[in-house]
Specification:
Butyryl-CoA Dehydrogenase, subunit A, domain 2; globular; binds coenzyme a persulfide; Butyryl-CoA Dehydrogenase, subunit A, domain 3; Butyryl-Coa Dehydrogenase, subunit A, domain 1; alpha+beta
Length: about 375
């Protein structure tokens, strides 16, 4: 396949090559089995750790590669080409680490980031609750200071890497009267007293990723596990999601590309009415639309990631725009890939039905695409305030 030249540096091309090799050699051969067994892919994550990719976005002083959003996007796209479940596990560790990176003290960064960068410990992000999904500030979990300890009570739901990660960044209410300014973020570690795991979810797709409840029952953690200042938790969460959403967009790009590849190969090999089905215009036009949408999404995701890495301050609109475009694209393109493969596409022997199941979550997690459109719409309203 001929690639568009995005004028990548040697280092960026190396990230793609390393991630692509892991995807081809380790992820693709195991993805169907992991989808069936719903097992957590520890050995594949170890291979990613050995390749030093867990620290891509972590500054060198904390043991990382010192890269940024673009480096993450490039690696995630490759992993998603193989399996969005495994790619999600990798992305969720970064999501869990971002609050420490964004708002943690130097001491806290030194304590946690080197292990996360080395892939020795995985992270997870605890925001969602039974009654707080899209309405992120509606959380009920509380944290109360008692002497030198915070006491946390509540339950987090649908937490990616739940039960598998060792480091959890969790948001809780510290002063209910203050609304969004009354929430704070904490680091909770696996094994902390009063912290346990609840129900393990059975999912439509991304079955290689672990999704579980986090249960806090008088969970006691030291006072210095507060991330940043008290009352800044909601802002840290919003900034975290601004940074991580282009990563979800890149999962859409990798998945869309994989589905397109499968569809083109099948259309060239499948013969009907005496000809390969790619020679029929009805099929060609579907493939053409798929290719156009994948490349347009990739271009938007790459330019957004570069914009973020340039140090831009207000990135919410751009981050949401690329998440919407690339993940809606992934849903459409994987659905069309199943259609191009016809009966084969619907069978588990072929990878595209898993791709279609995996695509759906991209439109839902890290903020539904309806919420993303709200973010874009509200930003436009502000930008055109004087009209
Ligand atoms: N960066 C920094 N600050 C932000 C921000 C951002 N991206 N987005 C909002 N804020 C600030 C606002 O400026 C506001 O502060 P001020 O009172 O000083 O103006 C404060 O946070 C509250 O913002 P807002 O009133 O917009 O909050 P809402 O409760 O209306 O929620 C949405 C806004 C819906 C956008 C937010 O709840 C959201 O992103 N929901 C989706 C959550 C999600 O992704 N869940 C998935 C689970 S995580 S895997």
């Amino acid at each position: 396949m001929k690639d568009v030249d995005y004028f990548l540096t040697e280092e960026q091309q190396m990230i793609i090559d390393v991630a692509r090799q892991i995807t081809d050699e380790k992820i693709i051969p195991k993805r169907a089995e992991l989808d069936e067994t719903e097992e957590f892919p520890s050995d594949i994550l170890d291979a990613i750790a050995q390749a030093d990719l867990f620290g891509l976005y972590i500054p060198e002083e904390y043991g990382g590669f010192g890269g940024g959003c673009f480096d993450m996007v490039l690696a995630l796209e490759q992993f998603a080409r193989g399996c969005v479940g495994i790619a999600t596990t990798f992305a969720a560790s970064a999501l869990g680490a971002y609050p420490i990176l964004i708002s943690g003290s130097d001491e806290m960064k030194r304590k946690y980031l080197p292990d996360i960068a080395a892939g020795k410990r995985w992270a997870a992000f605890g925001l969602t609750e039974a009654n707080a999904g899209s309405d992120a500030s509606g959380i009920q979990t509380t944290a109360v200071l008692d002497g030198d300890e915070w006491v946390i009570n509540g339950t987090k739901q649908w937490i990616t890497n739940g039960g598998e990660a060792q480091i959890y960044t969790v948001i809780a209410i510290t002063d209910r009267k203050k609304g969004p300014r009354g929430a704070s973020m904490f680091v909770v570690e696996d094994g902390d007293p009063g912290f346990s795991y609840g129900k393990k979810e059975k999912k439509m797709g991304i079955r290689a990723s672990a999704t579980r409840e986090l249960v806090f029952q008088d969970c006691r953690i030291p006072k210095d596990r507060l991330i940043g200042r008290q009352g800044t938790g909601f802002f840290t969460v919003m900034r975290t999601l601004d940074l991580s959403r282009p990563g979800i967009a890149s999962l859409g790009v990798g998945l869309g590309q994989a589905a397109l590849d499968e569809a083109v190969i099948h259309a060239k090999q499948r013969v009907q009415f005496g000809k390969p089905v790619i020679s029929f215009q009805a099929v060609q036009h579907m493939l053409a639309d798929m290719a156009i949408q994948v490349e347009a999404s990739r271009a938007l995701v790459y330019s957004t990631a570069r914009f973020i890495d340039s140090g831009a301050k207000n990135i919410s609109k751009e981050s949401s725009m690329c998440k919407v475009m690339a993940t809606d694209m992934a849903m459409k393109v994987t659905t069309d890939a199943v259609q191009v493969l016809g009966g084969h596409g619907y069978m588990r022997e072929y990878p595209v039905e898993k791709m279609m199941r995996d695509a759906k979550i991209l439109q839902i997690y890290e903020g539904t695409n309806q919420i993303q459109r709200n973010v874009v719409g509200q930003a436009l309203n502000k930008e055109y305030a004087n009209v």
